[in-house]
Amino acid sequence: MQAPAASMNSLKNGPDDRGRFGTFGGQFVAETLMPLVQALDATYQAAKKDPTFWEELHYYFKHYIGRPSPLWHAKRLSDELGGARIYLKREELNHTGSHKLNNVMGQILLARRMGKTRIVAETGAGQHGVATATVCALFGMSCTIYMGATDVARQKPNVFRMKLLGAEVRPVTAGAGTLKDAMNEAMRDWVAHVADTYFLVGTVAGPHPYPAMVRDFQAVIGIETKEQILEAEGRLPDVIVAAIGGGSNAMGIFHPFLDDKDVRLVGVEAAGRGLDSGETAASISRGRSGVLHGNRTYLLQDEDGQILEAHSISAGLDYPGIGPEHAWLHEVGRAEYVSVTDVQALEAFQLLTRTEGIISALECAHGLAYVAQIAPHMSEKDIIVLNLSGRGDKDIDTVAHHLGTKL
Protein backbone atom coordinates (compact mmCIF):
# COMPACT_ATOMS: atom_id res chain seq x y z
CA MET A 1 0.00 0.00 0.00
CA GLN A 2 1.13 3.55 -0.80
CA ALA A 3 -0.34 7.01 -0.29
CA PRO A 4 -3.20 7.59 -2.80
CA ALA A 5 -1.86 8.34 -6.25
CA ALA A 6 -2.82 11.48 -8.14
CA SER A 7 -2.24 12.52 -11.75
CA MET A 8 -2.02 15.81 -13.62
CA ASN A 9 -5.30 17.78 -13.41
CA SER A 10 -6.60 15.38 -10.76
CA LEU A 11 -8.94 16.47 -7.98
CA LYS A 12 -6.73 14.31 -5.76
CA ASN A 13 -3.73 16.66 -6.08
CA GLY A 14 -4.57 18.86 -3.10
CA PRO A 15 -3.50 20.49 -0.93
CA ASP A 16 -1.08 22.97 -2.54
CA ASP A 17 2.38 23.67 -1.14
CA ARG A 18 0.84 26.00 1.48
CA GLY A 19 -1.46 23.24 2.68
CA ARG A 20 -4.56 24.77 1.11
CA PHE A 21 -7.51 23.39 -0.79
CA GLY A 22 -8.51 26.48 -2.73
CA THR A 23 -8.99 29.12 -0.01
CA PHE A 24 -9.45 26.48 2.73
CA GLY A 25 -6.96 24.71 5.00
CA GLY A 26 -3.59 26.30 5.78
CA GLN A 27 -1.61 26.65 9.00
CA PHE A 28 -3.26 29.19 11.34
CA VAL A 29 -1.36 28.31 14.53
CA ALA A 30 0.58 30.08 17.26
CA GLU A 31 4.24 30.85 16.58
CA THR A 32 5.17 28.26 19.21
CA LEU A 33 3.49 25.51 17.22
CA MET A 34 4.75 26.41 13.76
CA PRO A 35 8.05 24.49 14.09
CA LEU A 36 6.07 21.43 15.24
CA VAL A 37 3.63 21.36 12.33
CA GLN A 38 6.49 21.97 9.92
CA ALA A 39 8.49 19.11 11.45
CA LEU A 40 5.42 16.85 11.23
CA ASP A 41 4.91 17.81 7.58
CA ALA A 42 8.55 17.01 6.79
CA THR A 43 8.30 13.66 8.60
CA TYR A 44 5.11 12.73 6.77
CA GLN A 45 6.42 13.77 3.35
CA ALA A 46 9.48 11.56 3.94
CA ALA A 47 7.35 8.66 5.17
CA LYS A 48 5.08 8.87 2.11
CA LYS A 49 8.09 8.11 -0.08
CA ASP A 50 9.42 5.34 2.16
CA PRO A 51 8.12 1.85 1.21
CA THR A 52 9.07 0.49 4.63
CA PHE A 53 6.61 2.92 6.30
CA TRP A 54 3.71 1.65 4.21
CA GLU A 55 4.81 -1.97 4.62
CA GLU A 56 4.74 -1.52 8.41
CA LEU A 57 1.35 0.24 8.29
CA HIS A 58 -0.07 -2.46 6.02
CA TYR A 59 1.14 -5.10 8.45
CA TYR A 60 -0.86 -3.51 11.29
CA PHE A 61 -3.85 -2.90 9.01
CA LYS A 62 -4.04 -6.61 8.17
CA HIS A 63 -2.97 -8.32 11.37
CA TYR A 64 -4.11 -5.91 14.11
CA ILE A 65 -7.02 -3.90 12.68
CA GLY A 66 -8.43 -6.75 10.59
CA ARG A 67 -8.46 -5.18 7.13
CA PRO A 68 -9.84 -5.40 4.53
CA SER A 69 -13.25 -4.67 6.01
CA PRO A 70 -16.13 -6.40 4.16
CA LEU A 71 -18.44 -4.77 1.62
CA TRP A 72 -21.86 -6.17 2.51
CA HIS A 73 -24.82 -6.33 0.11
CA ALA A 74 -27.69 -5.28 2.41
CA LYS A 75 -30.38 -7.26 0.58
CA ARG A 76 -33.13 -7.07 3.20
CA LEU A 77 -32.61 -3.34 3.60
CA SER A 78 -32.65 -2.94 -0.19
CA ASP A 79 -35.87 -4.98 -0.45
CA GLU A 80 -37.49 -2.99 2.37
CA LEU A 81 -36.74 0.37 0.75
CA GLY A 82 -37.18 -0.72 -2.87
CA GLY A 83 -35.17 0.71 -5.77
CA ALA A 84 -31.38 0.74 -5.63
CA ARG A 85 -29.13 -2.06 -4.40
CA ILE A 86 -27.48 -0.94 -1.16
CA TYR A 87 -24.01 -1.98 -0.04
CA LEU A 88 -22.47 -1.26 3.38
CA LYS A 89 -18.72 -0.74 3.81
CA ARG A 90 -18.33 -2.40 7.22
CA GLU A 91 -15.73 -0.19 8.99
CA GLU A 92 -17.43 -0.91 12.31
CA LEU A 93 -15.90 -4.41 12.16
CA ASN A 94 -12.38 -2.99 12.59
CA HIS A 95 -10.66 -3.56 15.93
CA THR A 96 -12.07 -0.96 18.41
CA GLY A 97 -15.27 -0.72 16.35
CA SER A 98 -14.75 2.14 13.92
CA HIS A 99 -12.70 3.58 11.05
CA LYS A 100 -10.74 5.70 13.54
CA LEU A 101 -8.02 3.09 14.03
CA ASN A 102 -6.86 3.42 10.37
CA ASN A 103 -5.69 6.98 10.93
CA VAL A 104 -4.51 6.47 14.49
CA MET A 105 -2.23 3.62 13.45
CA GLY A 106 -0.62 5.76 10.76
CA GLN A 107 -0.05 8.68 13.11
CA ILE A 108 1.35 6.63 15.98
CA LEU A 109 3.97 5.23 13.60
CA LEU A 110 4.88 8.82 12.64
CA ALA A 111 5.06 9.87 16.30
CA ARG A 112 7.50 7.03 16.94
CA ARG A 113 9.60 8.16 13.95
CA MET A 114 9.70 11.67 15.48
CA GLY A 115 10.90 10.29 18.82
CA LYS A 116 7.81 11.45 20.74
CA THR A 117 6.92 9.56 23.93
CA ARG A 118 3.63 11.17 24.94
CA ILE A 119 0.35 11.37 23.00
CA VAL A 120 -2.49 13.86 23.50
CA ALA A 121 -5.77 13.61 21.63
CA GLU A 122 -9.29 14.97 21.58
CA THR A 123 -12.44 12.90 21.28
CA GLY A 124 -16.18 13.46 20.94
CA ALA A 125 -18.06 10.16 20.78
CA GLY A 126 -15.04 8.42 22.25
CA GLN A 127 -14.22 6.28 19.21
CA HIS A 128 -11.08 8.27 18.40
CA GLY A 129 -10.14 8.29 22.07
CA VAL A 130 -10.48 4.51 22.35
CA ALA A 131 -8.48 4.00 19.16
CA THR A 132 -5.73 6.32 20.43
CA ALA A 133 -5.61 4.67 23.86
CA THR A 134 -5.43 1.29 22.13
CA VAL A 135 -2.33 2.07 20.06
CA CYS A 136 -0.68 3.78 23.02
CA ALA A 137 -1.16 0.56 24.96
CA LEU A 138 0.18 -1.42 22.01
CA PHE A 139 3.35 0.65 21.76
CA GLY A 140 3.76 1.53 25.46
CA MET A 141 3.30 5.29 25.15
CA SER A 142 1.82 7.78 27.64
CA CYS A 143 -1.70 8.86 26.63
CA THR A 144 -3.89 11.81 27.65
CA ILE A 145 -7.36 12.19 26.13
CA TYR A 146 -9.37 15.42 26.35
CA MET A 147 -13.13 14.90 26.21
CA GLY A 148 -15.96 17.38 26.76
CA ALA A 149 -17.80 16.86 30.05
CA THR A 150 -21.10 16.54 28.18
CA ASP A 151 -19.64 13.76 26.04
CA VAL A 152 -18.10 12.06 29.10
CA ALA A 153 -21.61 11.82 30.55
CA ARG A 154 -23.24 10.41 27.39
CA GLN A 155 -20.40 8.09 26.34
CA LYS A 156 -19.57 6.38 29.66
CA PRO A 157 -18.67 2.96 28.17
CA ASN A 158 -16.01 4.50 25.94
CA VAL A 159 -14.61 6.55 28.85
CA PHE A 160 -14.27 3.32 30.84
CA ARG A 161 -12.60 1.58 27.88
CA MET A 162 -10.03 4.39 27.55
CA LYS A 163 -9.19 4.16 31.24
CA LEU A 164 -8.89 0.36 31.06
CA LEU A 165 -6.42 0.84 28.21
CA GLY A 166 -4.28 3.00 30.46
CA ALA A 167 -5.21 6.48 29.20
CA GLU A 168 -5.85 9.50 31.39
CA VAL A 169 -9.21 11.02 30.43
CA ARG A 170 -9.48 14.74 31.22
CA PRO A 171 -13.06 16.08 31.15
CA VAL A 172 -13.40 19.60 29.68
CA THR A 173 -16.06 21.80 31.25
CA ALA A 174 -15.48 24.92 29.13
CA GLY A 175 -18.16 25.92 26.60
CA ALA A 176 -20.75 23.24 25.96
CA GLY A 177 -18.35 20.49 27.01
CA THR A 178 -18.23 18.88 23.58
CA LEU A 179 -15.68 18.12 20.85
CA LYS A 180 -14.79 21.75 20.02
CA ASP A 181 -13.87 22.41 23.65
CA ALA A 182 -11.89 19.17 23.92
CA MET A 183 -9.86 20.11 20.84
CA ASN A 184 -9.10 23.55 22.33
CA GLU A 185 -7.69 21.95 25.48
CA ALA A 186 -5.69 19.32 23.59
CA MET A 187 -4.03 22.07 21.53
CA ARG A 188 -3.20 24.03 24.72
CA ASP A 189 -1.59 20.89 26.18
CA TRP A 190 0.42 20.43 22.97
CA VAL A 191 1.73 24.00 23.14
CA ALA A 192 2.79 23.50 26.77
CA HIS A 193 4.64 20.21 26.14
CA VAL A 194 6.19 20.60 22.70
CA ALA A 195 9.37 18.66 23.44
CA ASP A 196 7.97 15.17 24.00
CA THR A 197 4.30 15.35 22.97
CA TYR A 198 2.55 14.44 19.71
CA PHE A 199 -1.00 15.75 19.06
CA LEU A 200 -2.90 12.89 17.43
CA VAL A 201 -5.79 14.55 15.57
CA GLY A 202 -8.81 12.37 14.87
CA THR A 203 -10.35 13.95 11.80
CA VAL A 204 -9.50 15.74 8.55
CA ALA A 205 -9.20 19.12 10.31
CA GLY A 206 -6.51 21.11 12.12
CA PRO A 207 -3.45 22.80 10.62
CA HIS A 208 -1.69 21.35 7.57
CA PRO A 209 -0.59 18.55 7.22
CA TYR A 210 -3.32 16.97 9.40
CA PRO A 211 -6.24 17.22 6.90
CA ALA A 212 -4.26 15.64 4.06
CA MET A 213 -2.43 13.16 6.29
CA VAL A 214 -5.57 11.86 8.01
CA ARG A 215 -7.27 11.62 4.59
CA ASP A 216 -4.38 9.57 3.19
CA PHE A 217 -4.54 7.09 6.08
CA GLN A 218 -8.33 6.81 5.77
CA ALA A 219 -8.24 6.47 1.96
CA VAL A 220 -7.74 2.74 2.47
CA ILE A 221 -11.55 2.66 2.88
CA GLY A 222 -12.20 3.96 -0.63
CA ILE A 223 -9.37 1.97 -2.20
CA GLU A 224 -10.86 -1.27 -0.83
CA THR A 225 -14.41 -0.21 -1.75
CA LYS A 226 -13.43 0.35 -5.38
CA GLU A 227 -11.82 -3.09 -5.61
CA GLN A 228 -14.70 -4.81 -3.82
CA ILE A 229 -17.56 -3.23 -5.78
CA LEU A 230 -15.80 -3.99 -9.09
CA GLU A 231 -15.52 -7.62 -7.99
CA ALA A 232 -19.16 -7.78 -6.83
CA GLU A 233 -20.89 -5.77 -9.56
CA GLY A 234 -18.33 -5.29 -12.32
CA ARG A 235 -18.68 -1.51 -12.19
CA LEU A 236 -18.42 1.48 -9.88
CA PRO A 237 -21.35 2.57 -7.69
CA ASP A 238 -23.75 5.33 -8.72
CA VAL A 239 -23.75 7.00 -5.30
CA ILE A 240 -21.46 6.90 -2.25
CA VAL A 241 -22.94 8.24 1.00
CA ALA A 242 -21.18 8.99 4.29
CA ALA A 243 -22.01 10.94 7.43
CA ILE A 244 -19.85 13.99 8.18
CA GLY A 245 -18.87 15.74 11.37
CA GLY A 246 -15.23 16.65 10.82
CA GLY A 247 -15.50 14.27 7.88
CA SER A 248 -12.70 11.69 8.13
CA ASN A 249 -14.76 8.64 7.21
CA ALA A 250 -16.36 10.50 4.31
CA MET A 251 -13.04 11.77 2.97
CA GLY A 252 -11.59 8.28 3.34
CA ILE A 253 -14.17 6.73 1.06
CA PHE A 254 -14.60 9.78 -1.24
CA HIS A 255 -10.97 10.47 -2.10
CA PRO A 256 -10.16 7.47 -4.33
CA PHE A 257 -13.36 8.25 -6.31
CA LEU A 258 -12.81 12.01 -6.81
CA ASP A 259 -11.81 11.62 -10.47
CA ASP A 260 -14.64 9.13 -11.22
CA LYS A 261 -17.08 11.86 -12.18
CA ASP A 262 -20.05 9.52 -12.76
CA VAL A 263 -19.99 8.55 -9.05
CA ARG A 264 -22.07 10.93 -6.91
CA LEU A 265 -20.43 11.69 -3.57
CA VAL A 266 -22.85 12.72 -0.81
CA GLY A 267 -21.87 13.89 2.67
CA VAL A 268 -24.67 13.93 5.24
CA GLU A 269 -24.53 16.59 7.94
CA ALA A 270 -26.38 16.48 11.23
CA ALA A 271 -29.26 18.96 11.09
CA GLY A 272 -29.90 18.30 14.78
CA ARG A 273 -33.36 19.60 15.69
CA GLY A 274 -33.65 21.24 12.23
CA LEU A 275 -31.53 23.52 10.03
CA ASP A 276 -33.41 26.62 11.21
CA SER A 277 -33.87 25.54 14.84
CA GLY A 278 -30.63 27.10 16.06
CA GLU A 279 -29.65 23.64 17.32
CA THR A 280 -27.77 22.08 14.44
CA ALA A 281 -24.30 20.83 13.49
CA ALA A 282 -24.73 21.45 9.73
CA SER A 283 -21.69 23.67 9.18
CA ILE A 284 -21.89 23.71 5.38
CA SER A 285 -25.65 24.25 5.19
CA ARG A 286 -25.71 26.92 7.91
CA GLY A 287 -22.08 28.05 8.25
CA ARG A 288 -19.61 30.29 6.44
CA SER A 289 -15.86 30.52 5.95
CA GLY A 290 -13.74 31.22 9.04
CA VAL A 291 -10.71 30.01 11.02
CA LEU A 292 -10.79 27.47 13.86
CA HIS A 293 -8.32 24.92 15.22
CA GLY A 294 -5.58 25.92 12.81
CA ASN A 295 -7.41 25.86 9.48
CA ARG A 296 -9.84 27.90 7.38
CA THR A 297 -13.08 26.10 6.66
CA TYR A 298 -16.87 26.33 6.94
CA LEU A 299 -17.92 27.08 10.53
CA LEU A 300 -21.11 27.79 12.46
CA GLN A 301 -20.75 31.44 13.52
CA ASP A 302 -22.84 34.32 14.77
CA GLU A 303 -22.90 37.76 13.10
CA ASP A 304 -19.76 38.78 14.99
CA GLY A 305 -17.81 35.70 13.89
CA GLN A 306 -18.05 33.96 17.28
CA ILE A 307 -18.23 30.17 16.99
CA LEU A 308 -21.67 28.78 17.79
CA GLU A 309 -22.28 25.61 19.76
CA ALA A 310 -23.25 22.68 17.56
CA HIS A 311 -25.99 20.20 18.38
CA SER A 312 -26.54 16.62 17.27
CA ILE A 313 -28.01 13.52 18.87
CA SER A 314 -24.69 11.96 17.84
CA ALA A 315 -21.65 13.03 19.88
CA GLY A 316 -19.35 12.28 16.95
CA LEU A 317 -21.10 14.82 14.70
CA ASP A 318 -21.38 17.51 17.38
CA TYR A 319 -18.69 19.83 15.91
CA PRO A 320 -19.21 23.37 14.52
CA GLY A 321 -16.87 22.92 11.56
CA ILE A 322 -15.86 20.53 8.80
CA GLY A 323 -12.58 19.45 7.24
CA PRO A 324 -11.22 22.01 4.74
CA GLU A 325 -11.13 19.58 1.81
CA HIS A 326 -14.88 19.04 2.23
CA ALA A 327 -15.40 22.83 2.17
CA TRP A 328 -13.45 22.96 -1.09
CA LEU A 329 -15.30 19.99 -2.66
CA HIS A 330 -18.55 21.75 -1.77
CA GLU A 331 -17.49 25.01 -3.41
CA VAL A 332 -16.17 23.37 -6.61
CA GLY A 333 -19.30 21.20 -6.79
CA ARG A 334 -17.62 17.76 -6.77
CA ALA A 335 -19.40 16.53 -3.65
CA GLU A 336 -22.94 17.23 -2.42
CA TYR A 337 -23.74 18.01 1.20
CA VAL A 338 -27.21 17.35 2.58
CA SER A 339 -28.60 17.06 6.09
CA VAL A 340 -30.93 14.90 8.19
CA THR A 341 -32.39 15.56 11.62
CA ASP A 342 -31.98 13.74 14.94
CA VAL A 343 -35.42 12.18 14.48
CA GLN A 344 -34.65 10.90 10.98
CA ALA A 345 -31.34 9.43 12.17
CA LEU A 346 -33.07 7.68 15.06
CA GLU A 347 -35.59 6.11 12.66
CA ALA A 348 -32.77 4.95 10.36
CA PHE A 349 -30.89 3.47 13.34
CA GLN A 350 -33.90 1.23 14.04
CA LEU A 351 -34.43 0.41 10.35
CA LEU A 352 -30.92 -1.02 9.90
CA THR A 353 -31.10 -2.94 13.16
CA ARG A 354 -34.42 -4.51 12.17
CA THR A 355 -33.56 -5.39 8.55
CA GLU A 356 -29.86 -6.34 8.65
CA GLY A 357 -29.15 -7.22 12.29
CA ILE A 358 -26.53 -4.46 12.42
CA ILE A 359 -26.58 -1.89 15.23
CA SER A 360 -24.77 1.07 13.70
CA ALA A 361 -23.40 4.17 15.36
CA LEU A 362 -25.75 7.15 15.38
CA GLU A 363 -23.25 8.94 13.13
CA CYS A 364 -23.76 6.35 10.39
CA ALA A 365 -27.53 6.42 10.90
CA HIS A 366 -27.47 9.95 9.47
CA GLY A 367 -26.02 8.57 6.24
CA LEU A 368 -28.55 5.74 6.21
CA ALA A 369 -31.42 8.19 6.67
CA TYR A 370 -30.42 9.89 3.42
CA VAL A 371 -30.01 6.53 1.67
CA ALA A 372 -33.58 5.71 2.75
CA GLN A 373 -34.75 8.94 1.08
CA ILE A 374 -33.11 8.35 -2.32
CA ALA A 375 -33.03 4.56 -2.78
CA PRO A 376 -36.80 4.12 -3.48
CA HIS A 377 -36.55 6.65 -6.33
CA MET A 378 -33.69 4.83 -8.05
CA SER A 379 -33.65 1.82 -10.39
CA GLU A 380 -32.93 -1.73 -9.27
CA LYS A 381 -29.86 -1.49 -11.52
CA ASP A 382 -28.48 1.42 -9.47
CA ILE A 383 -25.94 0.92 -6.68
CA ILE A 384 -25.48 2.88 -3.46
CA VAL A 385 -22.57 2.36 -1.07
CA LEU A 386 -22.94 3.63 2.51
CA ASN A 387 -19.84 3.89 4.68
CA LEU A 388 -20.78 2.28 7.98
CA SER A 389 -17.96 3.82 9.98
CA GLY A 390 -18.84 2.87 13.56
CA ARG A 391 -20.89 0.47 15.66
CA GLY A 392 -23.72 1.40 17.95
CA ASP A 393 -22.74 -0.12 21.29
CA LYS A 394 -21.66 3.31 22.51
CA ASP A 395 -25.02 4.86 21.58
CA ILE A 396 -27.37 2.34 23.19
CA ASP A 397 -28.01 4.53 26.26
CA THR A 398 -28.75 7.58 24.08
CA VAL A 399 -31.11 5.63 21.82
CA ALA A 400 -32.88 4.02 24.76
CA HIS A 401 -33.40 7.44 26.36
CA HIS A 402 -34.94 8.89 23.20
CA LEU A 403 -37.16 5.84 22.75
CA GLY A 404 -38.40 6.16 26.33
CA THR A 405 -36.70 3.01 27.62
CA LYS A 406 -34.77 2.95 30.91
CA LEU A 407 -31.85 0.51 30.93
Automatic annotation (TrEMBL):
Keywords from the UniProt entry: Amino-acid biosynthesis, Aromatic amino acid biosynthesis, Lyase, Pyridoxal phosphate, Tryptophan biosynthesis
Lineage, highest ranks first: Bacteria, Pseudomonadati, Pseudomonadota, Alphaproteobacteria, Acetobacterales
SUBUNIT field: Tetramer of two alpha and two beta chains.
EC number: 4.2.1.20
Lyase listed as a keyword: yes
InterPro entries: Trp_synth_b_CS (IPR006653), Trp_synth_beta (IPR006654), Trp_synth_beta/beta-like (IPR023026), TrpB-like_PALP (IPR001926), TrpB-like_PALP_sf (IPR036052)
Purpose of the protein: The beta subunit is responsible for the synthesis of L-tryptophan from indole and L-serine.
Pathway(s) it belongs to: Amino-acid biosynthesis; L-tryptophan biosynthesis; L-tryptophan from chorismate: step 5/5
Domain Tryptophan synthase beta chain-like PALP: 66-390
Cofactor: pyridoxal 5'-phosphate
Stated name of the protein: Tryptophan synthase beta chain
Organism of provenance: Candidatus Kirkpatrickella diaphorinae
Catalytic activity: (1S,2R)-1-C-(indol-3-yl)glycerol 3-phosphate + L-serine = D-glyceraldehyde 3-phosphate + L-tryptophan + H2O
PANTHER family named among the record's database cross-references: TRYPTOPHAN SYNTHASE, TRYPTOPHAN SYNTHASE-RELATED
Protein family per UniProt: Belongs to the TrpB family.
Residues with the N6-(pyridoxal phosphate)lysine modification: K100
Broad EC category: lyase
Keyword match Amino-acid biosynthesis: yes
Entry GO MF terms: tryptophan synthase activity
